[in-house]
Specification:
This protein is mainly alpha-helical. The protein contains six helices and no strands. 43% of the residues are buried.
Length: 198
């Protein structure tokens, strides 16, 4: 159950906090797309490429939320939610094909320490942002910010899944852990899209 902020000054403060949280998320993911593109190319990792695409979706989601926070109205919120949902459907479809192909052909990524560091940092940062967005969205009674808080939480979980896949490959040589981590992203992306469109 959502509830709106009490006074107009509380509402403005919460809106400002929501904008700042989305700005931080946006900045982190813009940097992350570049980092993940380099890492995915140098390691041939399906999971890192998928996580880079997820970061692109998070950029789009943050942009949509910033747009939505600047206005109001149920129609605008519904449109914003649908845009985020479509992006998740596209991500799930892409990763399902890529991960399935990698598993079927025995494609082996080259695990790396920089991938471990980046995905570990991202997991922590996104988890903190998710908690803050959820509490702010709940206080504002804003469904779009609440949904984007879930998107950010999924981003943290996906970072942890990719981290685990890279770590298992690096430590134990389990080459299949990378595409399996990609399939984890498929599951979460499909589930989130379903929740949005319900």
């Amino acid at each position: 159950m959502t509830r709106s902020a009490g006074s107009p000054s509380d509402h403005r403060l919460l809106l400002r906090r929501g904008v700042v949280l989305e700005g931080v998320t946006l900045a982190w993911n813009v940097v992350g797309v570049g980092v993940l593109a380099v890492l995915a190319l140098t390691t041939s990792s399906v999971a890192l490429a998928g996580f880079g695409l997820d970061s692109l979706i998070e950029i789009g989601a943050s942009t949509v939320v910033l747009w939505e926070l600047s206005g109001s109205g149920a129609a605008r919120q519904e449109r914003a939610l649908r845009l985020i949902g479509v992006a998740f459907v596209l991500l799930a479809a892409y990763l399902l094909v890529q991960s399935g192909f990698a598993l079927a052909t025995g494609h082996r990524a080259t695990p790396s320490w920089p991938a471990l560091v980046w995905t570990g940092l991202t997991a922590v940062v996104m988890l903190v942002l998710s908690v803050l967005k959820t509490s702010t969205g709940r206080a504002l009674g804003n469904r779009v910010l609440l949904t984007e808080g879930r998107v950010t939480r999924i981003d943290a979980l996906l970072a942890a899944a990719v981290l685990l896949g890279v770590a298992l490959d690096l430590a134990l040589g389990w080459w299949w852990a990378d595409p399996v981590a990609g399939l984890v992203i498929v599951f979460y992306a499909a589930r989130e899209a379903r929740e949005i469109f319900r």
